[in-house]
């Protein structure tokens, strides 16, 4: 449950810290009277064998009551008063007659962060006039279904029907029988996210509805703002959330506004997870990472984004303590950044991914982990049965212990010893295909199945058998595997295992390279908008065999457009180096013509990154950010358009989102240098969008 720091915050303090939101005299946000009182939820959180949390939000004051019972027609039990925690946005707290505990204030963007936000950026703060209610039902029967309704006094607001129900967890000594829905990187609010959800619902309707929902992060693009959680997560999944607990892992997009070290931000407002071993495992004392038991299965959730991942860090130390006391038949771990992938991200090149593989995987495999689930990379990848794949780069030789397909209708299930046995084999899955644009950079050699298509994963666990089924957005079954744990099974590393083919037709990454034949001239497929403004030519990078482009804007602003790709993209990347710093330069995307495009400019003189949109020949700055980078080295710049946002990453360290005033149109890409700038660039890479 939440850590409640009952530190009184006086009325004056809250009033000073509150934003100047427009509210009514009673603290309510202006709203139409015909709007429903509940605008978020109700949804379920933090289930245990004898308790659960029911959460919802309103935009007006109510007398909150929850009634529940074993039948929707007989809600004989009631929660009210001190059994319901009331939290609120700062504008509501500002007009409260009573002192408000700091822990009961919902997220309001700190003034220091807000000062650096551009006017076009979304305010990540909680919607004005918000009241959040967290009702904790305790003393429940183990493994029992209850139905519930949410009331304002005696007025029913939601539930009291067959669709609003919850179930307490089974005994930890009972054999596991459950279905999980696993999804990642879904929170775009777009059509693919909705199709993936619909496909899961239709698939489950003919078999079994998921008992639990695991989200491996990035559920609220682009910044994990409060309103993005509402539109891209709660509004879309409400029909499942009202009767299915979601166990979350924080992604990098939620990390734009939420912090693992402080457990502060919209992500931490949205979720309640076990911190004091109330659902099993060892107390973590933080909502950033936690564990829980469902029957004979132990689950571990980690924060791979913004906490220390090293073996001596607090998270790894807690993990080792938790693993030492696990008594279960199955062990499943999940987090955001995958230890193995060649999808839209590369686990051999990115620090968070490398460290989760190098530092965390050895701890889990020594404890007998069965399944590792992650997202971040927008693809579906499922490994063979592996052990000991900790090196960089990842290879298959000597780390695959069963190179079959794991399919009961194919090579047969993977087999492991009963219980948790050290280094007995692990299946690693990337399920980052829940709604964002999917892509593939290369081929990860330990993967048995690679699917570049949106979808989600269903996991069925029944006693000694785990079955995983990947359903794509059209409802097609694209992968199925099983793990059976029975008796004693010994594995040996395979020196020359099966490996997936590097199928170029499936690779969506397009890399622009040059050689000596282009030296000293403008390369093919590039055009200068006005060659009188300057020049672009290819040169060899000193001391290396590699070639780079040099752009000099001597007489005016120079735009160089690449004609090799013309269509929707998922991402573009370039390494850019300033030779002269008199003027800004950067990337162009969505190029229609000289009067309609977008661009990100880096200004070395002011140390700022500016994102512009040009429409009808008029240029408008949508974002202006201070950046702290080493300009003596090439800057790695990545732009990822998703619907009506563009995610910006600089040197894999600076990450933020630009909100567009309208969706980005498909177009060409290029380089723009303002008059006086001279730059070098290389590594010009484009992730093409799948049709």
TrEMBL record:
Its EC number is 3.1.3.1. It comes from the Bacteria. InterPro entries: Calcineurin-like_PHP (IPR004843), Metallo-depent_PP-like (IPR029052), PAPs-like (IPR039331), Purple_acid_Pase-like_N (IPR008963). Residues 1-25 form the signal peptide. GO terms for molecular function: acid phosphatase activity; alkaline phosphatase activity; metal ion binding. Keywords: Hydrolase, Signal. Residues 178-380 form the Calcineurin-like phosphoesterase domain. Transmembrane segments: none annotated. The keyword Signal applies. This is Alkaline phosphatase. The lineage of its organism: Bacteria, Pseudomonadati, Planctomycetota, Planctomycetia, Pirellulales.
């Amino acid at each position: 449950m939440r850590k409640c720091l009952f530190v009184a915050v006086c009325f004056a303090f809250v009033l000073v810290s509150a934003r100047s939101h427009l509210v009514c005299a009673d603290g309510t946000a202006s709203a139409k009277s015909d709007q429903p009182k509940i605008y978020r939820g109700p949804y379920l959180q933090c289930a245990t064998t004898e308790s659960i949390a029911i959460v919802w939000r309103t935009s007006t004051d109510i007398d909150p009551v929850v009634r529940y019972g074993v039948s929707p027609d007989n809600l004989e039990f009631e929660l009210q008063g001190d059994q319901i925690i009331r939290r609120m946005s700062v504008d509501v707290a500002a007009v409260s007659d009573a002192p408000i505990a700091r822990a009961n204030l919902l997220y309001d963007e700190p003034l220091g962060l807000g000062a650096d936000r551009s006017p076009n950026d979304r305010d990540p703060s909680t919607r004005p006039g918000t009241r959040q209610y967290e009702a904790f039902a305790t003393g429940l029967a183990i493994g029992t279904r209850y139905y519930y309704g949410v009331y304002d006094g005696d007025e029913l607001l939601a539930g009291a029907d067959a669709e609003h129900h919850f179930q307490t967890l089974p005994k930890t000594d009972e054999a596991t029988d459950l279905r999980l829905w696993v999804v990642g990187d879904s929170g775009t609010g777009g059509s693919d996210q909705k199709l993936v959800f619909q496909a899961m619902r239709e698939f489950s309707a003919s078999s079994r509805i998921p008992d639990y929902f695991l989200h491996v992060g990035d559920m609220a693009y682009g910044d994990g703002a409060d309103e993005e959680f509402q539109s891209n997560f709660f509004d879309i999944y409400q029909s499942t959330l009202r009767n299915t607990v979601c166990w979350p892992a924080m992604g990098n997009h939620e990390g734009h506004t939420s912090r693992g070290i402080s457990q502060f931000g919209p992500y931490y407002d949205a979720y309640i997870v076990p911190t004091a071993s109330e659902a099993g495992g060892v107390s973590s004392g933080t909502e950033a990472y936690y564990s829980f038991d469902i029957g004979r299965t132990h689950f571990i959730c980690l924060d791979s984004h913004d906490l220390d991942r090293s073996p001596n860090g607090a998270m790894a130390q807690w993990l080792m303590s938790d693993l030492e006391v696990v008594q279960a038949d199955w062990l499943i771990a999940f987090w955001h950044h995958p230890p193995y992938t060649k999808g839209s991200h590369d686990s051999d090149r990115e620090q968070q991914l490398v460290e989760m593989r190098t530092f965390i995987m050895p701890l889990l495999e020594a404890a007998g982990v069965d399944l590792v689930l992650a997202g971040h990379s927008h693809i579906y990848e499922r490994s063979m049965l592996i052990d000991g794949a900790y090196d960089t780069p990842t290879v298959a030789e000597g780390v695959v212990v069963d190179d079959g397909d794991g399919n009961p209708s194919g090579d047969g299930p993977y087999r492991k010893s009963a219980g948790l046995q050290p280094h007995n084999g692990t299946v690693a899955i990337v399920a980052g295909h829940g709604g964002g644009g999917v892509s593939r950079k290369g081929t990860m050699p330990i993967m048995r199945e690679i699917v570049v298509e949106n979808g989600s994963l269903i996991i069925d666990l029944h006693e000694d058998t785990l079955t995983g089924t990947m359903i794509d957005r059209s409802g097609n079954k694209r992968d199925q595997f099983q793990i059976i744990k029975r008796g004693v099974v010994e594995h040996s590393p395979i020196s020359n295992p099966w490996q997936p083919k590097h199928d170029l037709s499936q690779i969506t990454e397009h890399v622009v390279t040059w050689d000596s034949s282009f030296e000293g001239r403008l390369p093919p497929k590039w055009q200068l908008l006005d060659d009188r403004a300057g020049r672009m030519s290819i040169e060899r990078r000193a001391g290396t065999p590699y070639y780079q482009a040099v752009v000099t804007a001597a007489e005016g602003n120079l735009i160089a457009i690449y004609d090799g790709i013309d269509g929707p993209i998922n991402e573009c990347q370039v390494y850019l180096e300033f030779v002269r710093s008199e003027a800004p330069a950067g990337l162009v995307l969505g190029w229609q013509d000289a009067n309609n495009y977008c661009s990100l400019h880096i200004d070395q003189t002011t140390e700022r990154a500016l994102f512009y949109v040009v429409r009808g020949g008029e240029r408008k700055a949508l974002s202006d950010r201070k950046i702290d980078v080493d300009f003596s080295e090439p800057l790695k710049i990545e732009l990822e358009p998703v619907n009506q946002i563009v995610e910006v990453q600089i040197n894999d360290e600076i990450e933020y989102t630009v909100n567009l005033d309208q969706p980005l149109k498909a177009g060409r890409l290029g380089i723009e240098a303002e008059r006086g700038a001279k730059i070098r660039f290389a590594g010009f890479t484009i992730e093409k969008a799948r049709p």
